[in-house]
Amino acid sequence: MQTDAVFSGLQGHRGILPFEKVKDLLPEKLPCNWLLMNQDGVLSLFVVLPYGGGQYVAFDAVLPANEEVAESWRNTTTRDELIERLSGFEPRVQEIVRRFDQDEVLALGMYDRDPISQWTKNRITLLGDAAHPMLPTEGQGANMAIQDAQTLGDCLSGATHDQFPAALQDYAELRIPITREIQRKSRDRRPFDFEIPPHLTM
């Protein structure tokens, strides 16, 4: 059973570059998250993560999308367009993107899907994003996949060939209520509301 993708209204802009190129712009410890607001009251979340054993860093600039973005891993924007969109925010954020040495940056629409009630059929089952795609706002996507794998292994341990379909069904019945709740929380929890928080208004 497949459900339609649901667009969150958010767009993540992602790139990877050598740590040495931007270390003067970063705090001592990574990862770091900057919740930023420009002069127009637009909020952005800018995340920098260590990558490749610390030799590289990955950045992710989450901004409100100007329009619905196609569900694809191939969407891009130009580096200069992203720098322009980050105009008015913390200057270091623009400079990190400016030092990115490619002309195009991934610009991915952030989607999830409604929970499904059936993961398993006969000897086939789902786990991870195939079973429960969710937004990254709770930071639980990988954790849920690891727990799926652990539960699946436990259910299959000791099962005979004839018992496999029942074991797979047991696995799904254990995991669906948990992942359904995390999917809901991830959808409900937005990284920011795109409005000026009351305590920041003058």
Provide structural commentary:
The protein is of the alpha+beta class and 202 residues long. The chain has two domains: 5-112, D-Amino Acid Oxidase, Chain A, domain 2, CATH 3.30.9; 115-189, FAD/NAD(P)-binding domain. The chain is 30% helix and 25% strand. The protein is built from five helices and six strands. It has helices spanning 19-22, 79-85, 91-98, 141-156, 164-188; strands spanning 5-18, 32-37, 43-51, 56-64, 76-78, 104-113. Strands 2-3-4-1-6-5 form a six-stranded antiparallel sheet. Strand 3 and strand 4 (56-64) form a beta hairpin. The longest helix is centred in the last third of the chain and has 25 residues, at 164-188. It is elongated. The relative contact order is 0.18.
Please supply descriptive tags for the structure shown above.
disordered C terminus; monooxygenase; 5 helices; elongated; alpha+beta; single chain; 6-stranded antiparallel β-sheet; FAD/NAD(P)-binding domain; monooxygenase activity; FAD; FAD/NAD-bd_sf; 202 residues
